[in-house]
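Record format v2
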Amino acid sequence: MLRVIFLGTGGALPTVNRNPPAIFINIKGESMLFDCGEGTQQQMMRAKTGMAFRSIFITHWHGDHFLGIPGLIQTMSFQGRKKPLEIIGPKHIDRFISDILSLCYYRLSFDLKIREVKAGDIIERSNHVIKVFETDHNVPSVGYILQEHERLGKFDPGRAIELGIRPGPLYSRLQSGKSVFVGEKEIKPDEVVGPKRRGRKVVYTGDTRPSAKVIKASRGADLLIHDGMLLGALADWAVESKHSTSIEAANDAKDAGVKKLILMHISSRYSDDPTPLLREAKGIFENTEISRDFMTVEVPYQD
Amino acid sequence: MLRVIFLGTGGALPTVNRNPPAIFINIKGESMLFDCGEGTQQQMMRAKTGMAFRSIFITHWHGDHFLGIPGLIQTMSFQGRKKPLEIIGPKHIDRFISDILSLCYYRLSFDLKIREVKAGDIIERSNHVIKVFETDHNVPSVGYILQEHERLGKFDPGRAIELGIRPGPLYSRLQSGKSVFVGEKEIKPDEVVGPKRRGRKVVYTGDTRPSAKVIKASRGADLLIHDGMLLGALADWAVESKHSTSIEAANDAKDAGVKKLILMHISSRYSDDPTPLLREAKGIFENTEISRDFMTVEVPYQD
């Protein structure tokens, strides 16, 4: 399972139906949060995500992307959390987290582990890695690539039977890359198992202008979640505020050859009816959706 | 009009249907906010209160009572607010507000006026005053009394006609405290206008143990909004955490002779069904209600 739950999909100005940015991802039981706008803890309660995840990844230190942290860690502490919580983010993380901690009288029941990251950093996990790439916003900012580990190759049962291998433990042995014997004949894994298959890839840009770095990071992604907050008519404002129009996001998606694009950080102008944003993006990249709070997306394997 | 809108009625652990504390009050067009928990700006949008109010009064510097400030002032700034915003609260206000401001990269479009208050302080307004009183919590904390100015006395039209005064401008002149002449006979205001009538009074305790100071502050209030977050069975925990049971709140209301009691800061234990809290309080003080998010209460004149 690779499930993406949008907890907040609005811009810096939240609305009655769009919280500030927060995305919860669960990949085969390992879960994490990307950005944590004000009110994220209640959104998690509403979406029933639980709060036992390991890490929060922050794209940049604008209030709408992290002001949910103080309330969330207070609630985790009230709930008696013991497991450390990692907070990962770009330059100035120490300053912002220490400011957040000084806001509170209470003592946390768990440790906070702070890690400042920059483009090129890789965070290892048991079934995936998170890679950091540079984005183009008006404060230090990064995006994140969630890259699932390679999967075993495809097993060819027809070929296995031809070779006289009976279904059972030998199949598993072959698929895990070991040879087996049928009588005295050695069967090597590559005779019945295809090449390793790539894992799934999800990219989240946070706030950004479209860029070659975003395209490179998103190459072949199964899902690209891209800042796409403005209509083409407001392209000048997108340049000035260092955001993207939905057209620009769609061009990044097309150039990167992704499978699916979801637009985030929807301007309050289009909060209730983002159809115009969608229409413009689909003109360039058909498989586009507009995020909405509590939207849940399952990312399937492509092969 | 004296309208109280409950924007957040939960405790330190918010729930899906109770935001952390925030109360919006509008008295004859002058509006203000008491406490400002995380998510208050969106609650204001949902309740359509507008954001053009002058002051935020904070009862104490626990996160659940003020973590909505950074997002709210950011939104006010995006909206181009020019009018200064006053933030009023107890000891350590400078530290907390400067921490909040250092959380943000942006520059505000308006000035913040910070005022530290202590018990006995009085904030003057055009149609009311706000008086500060001491509460009993585990960090420096205060409560607030909103006291409407005295109203003009009751005009007795029957008596006025007996005295030969014709309805019209003379009535207004008399009611505003000036004499009038009917022929050569002087009529003094107190012949047709009763004594000045007291204004309405609303008291908000914030988080507190029940106390003689709360009772004194609440004497004769039209509405007392009191911490009443726990059942009597959890009285020990109320003592330890420096909160009140609903029974204790009801006793304060009864001893102060208030007209109406509304319980606030409802523990997440009773968030969905606070009936047991209500039942216990009503056993002592009948005119009790439990607050809920978006509840709106009009406070009428008593005479």
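Chain A touches chain B through 35 residues (CB under 8 Å).
Chain A is about 25% helix and 25% strand.
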